[in-house]
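Help needed: design a sequence for this.
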């Protein structure tokens, strides 16, 4: 997503766990933009999971 210029998602340590953090800079960012970013992250995660499962077969 960062390479596409769509969103800037980082990792950070929070209470000993690595979590994702969306960096919101543009002042016109909307709730829909954030929802769309989360949906894309979910799609990427599902694709990675599917890829890893098929590599074990």
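Sure. Designed sequence:
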């Amino acid at each position: 997503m960062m390479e596409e210029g769509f969103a800037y998602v980082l990792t950070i340590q929070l209470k000993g766990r690595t979590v994702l953090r969306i960096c919101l800079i543009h002042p016109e960012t909307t709730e829909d933009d954030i929802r769309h970013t989360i949906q894309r992250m979910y799609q990427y995660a599902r694709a990675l999971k599917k890829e890893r499962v098929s590599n074990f077969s």
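The beta strands are 9-14, 17-22.
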